[in-house]
Amino acid sequence: MVAQGPGPAARLAVEDRLYAALAVLRVVVTLNFVALTIWRWDNFSRPGWTLVVVLAILLWTVVVQILYSVPSRRTTWLYVADLAVTMAALATTPWLKSENFRATTPGFWVMCVVLAWAIHWNWRGGVVAGAAVSLSDVVVRSAAITQTNYSNIFLLLLGGAVVGYMCQTLQQMSAERAVAERREAIAHERARLARAVHDGVLQVLALVQRRGSESTGDWAELGVLAGEQESALRALIHAQDTWSTSAVTGGAGDEGQPALLVRDLAGALERTVGTRVTVATPGRAVDLPTEVVDTLLGAVGACLDNVRLHVGLDAPAWVLLEDHGDRVVVSVRDEGPGIAAGRLEEARSQGRLGVSSSICGRLDEIGGTATVQTGSWGTEWELSVPRDQ
Amino acid sequence: MVVDDHPMWRDAVERDLAASGLDVVAVAASGDEAITRFAASRPQVVVLDLQIPAPNGVEVTRTVLAQDPSARVLILSASGEQEDVLEALKAGATGYLVKSASRTDLLDAVRRVAGGGTVFTPGLAGLVLGEFRRISDPANQRPETPELTERETEVLRMVAKGWGSKQIAERLFISHRTVQNHVQNTLRKLQLHNRVELTRWAIEQGLDEVDEV
């Protein structure tokens, strides 16, 4: 495998930890093996050679204990040699004991090599090493296989496969987590750089706009264009900021909660209105069901269309979004001549569905209210929607 | 004093201020420069960009106002990050203007801030309203949480909807001065709340543990 990204490193880290755990296990089974040998010393027909074999096994244990602890020394040769030594240790049994022995010389010590293979070559390694060890065990026995022998072999094969599979899963998860962490770090860094770049661009756009407003002709036009781009970029930055925070809360929410059906009204408002409109928001996301946000945006759009129609294309307008907790209020104001007294009623009685009734209708749909105040100072719509927690 | 890390902007603002007869006593390109030069030149008004090399605009506001509480800080920011503006305001700044504001707006704002007044954009008023709603939320409420009076809320909402202070005065039948006072009061309450919070934080972080050590 090519060393690419954090995956292999994460796999290696998992392998290291598993070998550390195996080292402890190896000490336990070795002590068990030595104790059993002393206890059943009478069963050995060649005590002198038995001592030699036991010492050889202990020496090999120390050697692999050292070799397995260093990743660069965990070569294929080591695994093969470990397996060969284990099989040889098993093969000495009929010679050291009698032909009809029950327990092999190394006993449970043989599980170490199976687990070592399982950690390195996962379930396949576990099965192969388990099968090799089991086969040696069966071959050296001249007596018929007892049920206990069979159970031990079965457990060894099963254990090798299961441990191998679990190691594989652990390594995969660890690699995936490392990749995710890396992606997150990259995204953070990108956002940090983008912020600096955005700030610079905003500064330049603002400067062009400012210079443009002091001159005439092409320069003035350039200034207006810069202004449009400035507000577009500002809205984009705001939308990105609120998106990233709501994405985090959405991800951590209950699985039953449809996170996608909620949308931030504050960000949406800043993105949709034009350059002649000033938007004031509470500065944090105001999350509402998507259809409520869409309807409110439609209503605000209708109010602003009204401003353009009755006051002028370049007429300024202001939008204020307030989050009262139990309800959300959007105000839209202009400085036009106002709506003449009785004109709304007149339009309604004539059966003409004016803009105002379309605004009221939209709010009705989502259980809200729309009120309008008008006078010589202009017109102000207040759109209020209750929020059910 | 003009603080901005973009030379283009620094020069433009300096030129505009000087052309209208104001005296620019110092300019600075970073937070460190700003703090050192403030101590040396003692300006009445600091026109401050928030996005400057460390320490940032919020820190600079806090430091210079601790040195000279009679100085005034006007934030002139291009940044789309509204939280920073709110923080600078809590630290004691009394005005906020976006960089795309016209030259007349800028000069007007500097004069207003120098005279002890406040400069609010509709966007800023919306933020302050949101902040007061947040701190008066039952979940966050503490005994000494400041609250806006009905009049203050009304005035702040009108500012957020783009009303000028003269228009507000006419509409509410109050004097122009009273409108300004209402806006200033909201700012003072916010700054006071911030100081109380900071003190509480200091105590919680273990001022009372000092005795045990």
Set down the secondary structure blueprint.
The complex is a heterodimer of chains A (389) and B (213).
Chain A: H1 7-39, H2 47-68, H3 76-91, H4 93-96, H5 111-140, H6 147-213, H7 218-252, E1 262-264, H8 265-272, E2 277-280, E3 287-289, H9 290-310, E4 317-323, E5 327-334, H10 343-349, H11 355-365, E6 369-375, E7 378-386
Helix pairs in contact in A: 1-2, 1-5, 1-6, 2-3, 3-5, 5-6, 6-7, 7-8, 9-11
Chain B: E1 2-3, H1 7-19, E2 27-28, H2 31-41, E3 45-48, H3 57-67, E4 72-77, H4 82-90, E5 95-98, H5 103-114, H6 122-135, H7 150-160, H8 165-172, H9 176-204
Q: What can you see in these coordinates?
A:
- The complex is a heterodimer of chains A (389) and B (213).
- In chain A, strand 6 (369-375) and strand 7 form a beta hairpin.
- Chain A contains 11 helices and 7 strands.
- Chain A has a 5-stranded mixed sheet with strand order 2-4-5-7-6.
- Helices cover 65% and strands 11% of the residues of chain A.
- By secondary structure, chain A is of the alpha+beta class.
- Chain A folds into 2 domains: 7-179, no CATH class; 257-386, Heat Shock Protein 90 (2-Layer Sandwich), CATH 3.30.565.10.
- In chain A, helix 1 (7-39) runs antiparallel to helix 6 (147-213), helix 6 (147-213) runs antiparallel to helix 7 (218-252) and helix 9 (290-310) runs antiparallel to helix 11.
- In chain B, helix 3 packs parallel to helix 4 (82-90), helix 7 (150-160) packs across helix 9 (176-204) and helix 8 (165-172) crosses helix 9.
- Chain B has helices at residues 7-19, 31-41, 57-67, 82-90, 103-114, 122-135, 150-160, 165-172, 176-204, and strands at 2-3, 27-28, 45-48, 72-77, 95-98.
- By secondary structure, chain B is an alpha/beta fold.
- In chain B, helix 4 links the parallel strand 4 (72-77) and strand 5.
- Chain B starts with a strand and ends in a 9-residue tail after the last helix.
- Chains A and B meet through helix 6, helix 7, strand 2 and strand 4 of A and helix 1, helix 4 and helix 6 of B.
